[in-house]
Amino acid sequence: GGGCEAASGCSACPSGTFKESDSVAGCTPCPLGSYGSAVGATSSAVCARCVQGATTTGTGRTSAADCVCAGGAYDIREAGTNALTECEACPVGALCADGTCALDPLASSQSCPGGVSVNGTGSVGVWALGGDSRFVLQGCG
C-alpha cells in the first residue's frame, strides 16, 4: 500500500482508534478493557490493557483514566493524571459499584466498623485509602 498522501484528503485516526491496512474502511476503536492515546495508530498493539480486574465503560477509550474496576473492587488512581493503577478488593461488609464502596444497601440495618451505626436501606459508607494502604471507613451517611 502506498499510505496516505497529504493532498489526498486522508486524516489520521484519532486517539482510542487504529487502522491496520490501506483501505476505505474507517478507524477501529480500541476494544473494551483497553485504551490508546496515540493519534494515527496503525496497529491494535497501540491499545493498552487496563490493569487486572478493570475494564472500560465502552470502546475507543483514550487513557488509563478511562479504566474502572469491576464490581467488588475499588479504584486506586495516580495523583494528577487520575490513571487507574490498581483494583483492590472491597473490605468485608462492603460492596463496590463504579469504583466506590458502600455498605450493603439491601441490609435493613448494619454496623459500620468503628462503632458507627447505619440503619435503613441505601446507607452508604464513605471509605478512603489510609496511609498504610488499607481501606478505612471514614463515615456513614
From TrEMBL:
SUPFAM superfamilies: Growth factor receptor domain. Residues 8-47 form the Tyrosine-protein kinase ephrin type A/B receptor-like domain. Transmembrane segments: none annotated. It comes from the Eukaryota. It holds the Pfam family Ephrin_rec_like. InterPro entries: Growth_fac_rcpt_cys_sf, Tyr-kin_ephrin_A/B_rcpt-like. This is Tyrosine-protein kinase ephrin type A/B receptor-like domain-containing protein. The lineage of its organism: Eukaryota, Cryptophyceae, Cryptomonadales, Hemiselmidaceae, Hemiselmis.
